[in-house]
Structure formats: structure tokens, C-alpha cells
Amino acid sequence: MTDIEKEQLSEHEKDLQMIADFCLMDDDFMSEVFDNNIKAVEVVLSIILERDDLRVLSAETQSEYKSTAMRSVTLDIRAVDDEGKIYDIEIQRSDHGAGVRRARYHSSMIDRTLLEKGENFDSLVDTYVIFITERDKYGKGIPMYHIERKISELDDELFGDGTHIIYVNGEYRDTGNPVGRLMHDFQCKCAGDMLLPELAERVKYYKETEGGTNQMCRAMEARVEERLQKRLQEKIEKRNIEVALSMLDDGRFTFEDIAKFSQLSLEDVKELAKKHSA
Description:
The chain has helices spanning 3-21, 27-34, 38-49, 100-111, 178-186, 197-208, 210-250, 255-262, 266-277, and strands at 56-65, 73-81, 86-92, 127-133, 144-147, 150-151, 157-158, 163-169. By secondary structure, the protein is an alpha/beta fold. Helix 6 (197-208) crosses helix 7 (210-250).
């Protein structure tokens, strides 16, 4: 075996060890397990929402809502049910990553994609932003925390705008409770230790079969390359915005000129100008 072959084998062994240490709280692993896995996402949502009639039509991971002039958002899991309701499931190990204003922003970014021009606001479907946090966000030891807008002067009657935010306590371990069983499985490294067969089946595939581990290795390599490309694109977009802002400050250029030289879309230039003049 050549030195290059030995090095490649060593790298592969490192990848396999990394996969063995993964659980569903790990972003790369979670993304593969749940991507287009309607059955698994349906189980997670049914437990969190305490429903036995929920039917998921689509589920994708790492779905990005992009904006040049504003901050973009990448959803860990985006699902749609048979009533058109939208679900954003975020897996967060960092306390900072589960901030309340981040939940608000995620909710607003989902909303801005839901209506066509001229469509009635009553057509907005319900949306759910769900954070599964490794630690107990509010430290009360309960399975979940539900955040809803209420009307103070009407005895806290629900506002009813259709936005829902839920924090799921990843530290909750009472396996007599469905949420406890779900959180137990999210922390498991071995499929054989998991309690929910719909999750264990896919975890076993990616950890214990040659096809699954090879697919996971390729996915990890692709995500490293994707992150590098994303950082490069962010640098380019930052430079384009700087060019556009400089031209806006100059005051001699039309929006069309700015779009041409900054390589931004005309819509993005107008949005940037509006934000810049505020």
C-alpha cells in the first residue's frame, strides 16, 4: 500500500469514527437523516404538536431563504403538511443559536415567501418555528414551551395570527412521555438504543451499512465544499453591496446603472436604497 493510499484510508477511518459519534443533534447528520424523509419528519411533528392526524407532504433540509440586501436564513428542516401549513424545525446545540429574536426573524422570513402580489392577507397559512435545543431553554424542566401572541386587555385571549413558536427541551428524558422518548432518540449515537423505529431505521442505514456510511462521507465532503463556496459568495455579495452603496451615495447614478455595475438585481438595489435612506 502506497503512502497516498494509507493517507486516504486514514482519512476514511476518521470519517467513519466521526459518523459513529454523530447523533441527530449534529447538523450534518440530521440533514441527511431527515432530507426528503417524510415519515421521520411526520413522526417528529406529530409528537411535538400532539397530533395523530398530521400528514406531511414534503420535507427538505438546509432550505435557504435568500436576500441580498437583508440577512438570509437557512432552515434546518422545512416541511409542509396537507393543509399547507409550514414548519421550520431548527436543531440547536448553542444557546445563542436559539435566541428569541432569531425565532421572530425566522417566522418573518417564512411569511415573506407565502403571498403573491395582490393576494389577500387572509390567505396566509399557519407557520410553526420549532427549536429543539440541547439544553432546557427556560430551565423549568418541562417538555416544551409554547409561545403565542396574546391580547393583554382581553384576558390574554389569543391574537390568532397563525404564527406559532415552540421550544422543545432537549434535556427532557422522561421516556414515559412522547417528547422524552423523542429527545432520548435525538441524543442516541447507536440506532439499537433508539425507541422510535421511524428514526432508528434511517440512523442505522447511515451508521451501519456500507452504502449509508459512504453516502454520509460524500455528503460531509459536499457540505465542506458548499460552506467554502458560500463564504466566497458572501464575500462577493458584500463587495457588490459596497459598490452599490458607494454609487447610491454619489447620487449621480440611476438604479439601473447601479444594478449593472454592482451585479445586483434591480429589485435588490431598490431594497438596498430604501434601507440605506431610512
